[in-house]
Input
Amino acid sequence: MTTSWWEPAQGGAGPRPYVDIGGPAGDRDPVAASSATSGVRPYLITQGRARPNDTSLRLEAQVSTTDDGARSLSRLAYERHDIVVLCHDPQSIAELAARLHLHLGVARVLVGDLVEAGLLAVRHPEDARHRVQIIERVIRGLQAIS
Amino acid sequence: MDSKPSADVPVRRPPLPVKIVIAGGFGVGKTTAVAQISETPVLTTEAPITEVAAEVDRTGLVPDKTTTTVALDFGTVAIDDEVKLYLFGTPGQDRFGFMWHDLTVGALGALVIVDTSRLDDCYPAVDYFERTGLPFLVAVNLFDGRLAHELEDVRWALDLSDDTPVVTFDARDRASVRDTLVTLLRRSLAMASATGV
Output
């Protein structure tokens, strides 16, 4: 498949393009729409696990595809495949969940598995040591917004 | 720069993520505030609420365990070439108690948006942030540009400490949302400096 069906529909989707899960498909891509309403129970996808093995995985943790991950695409299917494709562009677990119409908990379990398998790399949020400097940076960044 | 397709670039260095939580009752203006400041369209994801009973101590108010979901709206702001700010908006209701830990762990702070006509909607969020020591600010959303109660009344009604900021803001106004976040972060900065980390 050459088209990026997982990308959000361009234009006309309004400010909350992912909010219409389960509603009428509207102008959304039919593939994405059907995957969003497949009726598969979320935890079937994760074999019943509600928590990742690595419970330190935060919702904002940045996930990116490793070289191994890029090479392994042909072996992957469904959600795992889509996650590894999407993470060529590093993004948070929360963003992945929204883009793939997965529950947050499910996305976190799948990401945890793929990290363990070496197909994804994670950049965790900074620990408390640099908190003051980071807060100062965020203040400056916000103040620059006009 | 941020949204470029990456077919030609195998892997970019991921940003350093930081987050602020935006709490408040339904329809109080959380998503509006996130949308004003976010550089990306507000995304929505669903978080299952199946572990409710475990972490909520107001047992009388907790419903039976269910498998319903709650929508989590969020947006992002690129702070500089490395730091990326996530703003997570969440309904601050009792029965969503279990999500608080996952949502708030490591957060820089929390904005509690209140509608003074439904002040009790924000009690669970305020309780939680006070208990866990997360820096927070109470922002009274000025519906119709009018303030129904004095800010000191709000402080009294919520039994807030003197150093918890209470401000008014307009969730529909970008500059107002920005300034409110900066006020929150100054509070976070003061608390972080005081603890010497």
In short: Residues 30-143 of chain A form one domain. Residues 104-116 of chain A form the longest helix (13 residues).
